[in-house]
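Predict fold of ATP-dependent protease; 611 aa.
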Amino acid sequence: MNVYPNPEPQLHSEPEKGASDSNLQRNSLGGSDFVTEKKTLANSSPKLRPTFNPESESYLRELIRSLQCKICNQLLRQPLALPCGDTLCRTCIPRLHERRYISYPSQSDRKQGFTCPFEGCHGQEHSIADCSLDITLTNVLTSVEIVLSDSAFSQDSVDTSSFPSSGPGKVQPIPPDKAHIYKVFWAYRIAKDGTLPFTSDFPTPPGIEHSEGATEQEKQHFANLLARLRSDFDCQVCYCPYNSPTTTSCGHTFCKACLERVRDHSNLCPFCRKTLSPYRNISTGCGNKRLTSLVSLLYPQITADKDTQASEGEIVSEQTIPIFACAMTFPQIPMFLHIFEPRYRLMLRRAIEDGTRCFGMVAHRPGSVPPADGDFVAPFTRYGTMLYVTNLQMFPDGRSLVETMGIYRFKIISYSWQDGYPLANIERVEDIPYADEEAMEASERINGSDTDSPTQMFSHLSTQELYQRGFEFVASMRNESVGWFADRILNTYGQPPQDPAIFPFWMATLLPVNEREKYLVLVSTSVRERLKLVMVWIKAMDQKSWRTRYILHRILNRIPTIALVLITIYIFLIKGATNEDQDTQKSDEISHYFIATIIAVIAAAIAFSRF
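Predicted 3D structure, encoded as tokens:
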């Protein structure tokens, strides 16, 4: 069944406007427009048809091997897709064990794990929660079974009773006009019985004296097989055969580029609408090796024709977006802008008109180049946040009040200038997979951190403990009515996030921390590292007597009010002295005392604020 998904952003409920063809090439943020564009490409590509080469034994062996389990040598039964990209039968999973020193993510089904049995994985540990039933491969196996079953061959007037069995007995010669069908059937049957080792070459079928090219009857059988498999290899986003197939946590498979594009708008599976688990980084994670092998065998054009297929993946992986160099912001955090410069007014209007409603936000570079930026030369930082316009209020004089929400982080690859504002080619920045996050936590809790960074003192704490301490700090500050977490602030930025991955971004937005320190949080791809950076801030605040600093900070902010009160008192005293005594000397003394008091208050506030 074909499903026509229409992924929508989670940040708004109104439908997006359609983007033009040029905008689809320039931007990668069009939701349903991207689906329509790629569907057209699929319909206009008749050359992308499955091919089959039954005359090559090596080709047939690779095809059968793609359907075999490496562990039991049988055809895959209830195939499970592993995070490393390999596949095995559900019954072939190694013995499970309890995973220790892991607290994030705090899910009960992640406590059970096993050691990957495949050599290429080098003994890596997988959580059972990260292994999903490969729905696409299951459908492929079912289709192959239907076509190659005895009953199917009998219906097509092929007498399978004349085929020799795999057991002992007299071998009947196979007619030359049925030799190729027999080779396929023979290899499939012994693989199904588990008597064909995974690493062995193609078995020599008994009973075949010689064979020539495939007959018309054989070609028809192979065409029936390919016709049944055709729909199983169609991505349900672009309706083209899979290009770098990637299996999600729910078991559905999509092109890697299509899945990246969908995730720009939503974290839901385009097929079943279940939440996608971030256990695997789509950009750098492993693709489905079995489906990749099958696609390369049945659709060699996809690998060869880089102009029509692979280039689309490059367009998606490197987006071109407008850049607003203003301030630092973070994903899932709102930001409010007052735009009045003509160049950025033009940028905003274009973002609204092309339907994306998105632009990149970066901060001005503070002095020296941050280490994370490397050799990037620009008046702004290399890392930023994609913002989505949730509300827009425009004034007659051209000014705009804009409400935005951070969607995801990005890294600038290159940039140019257009009409006074930057246009940048970017790539999305995602956190490391859950497996790497868990391995980092376990290693640090057992062996400690091997770095000299300020975060080393918190390496013995679990990730969940780091988050809990930060959460408790916020609660204590609210109990003491600290202005950083006042009700009006929380009404704007929301309550503390329950997700440890977002919590450091929220803290970096509200705490009065140096911009260079906040930038470390923005570029970090580890939830644990971000939480440790927040703990460093909290510890520094405790050591520097933040309460005194906060009180003086409030006094400094209220100097105009204090000065106004003192001026009122001064006028009242001067007026009283003039009316009663007409004593000029007394008025001068009051003036001197007033000026001295004002100077003392300002000097004391400035001096104490520097401690």
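Residues 553-609 form one domain.
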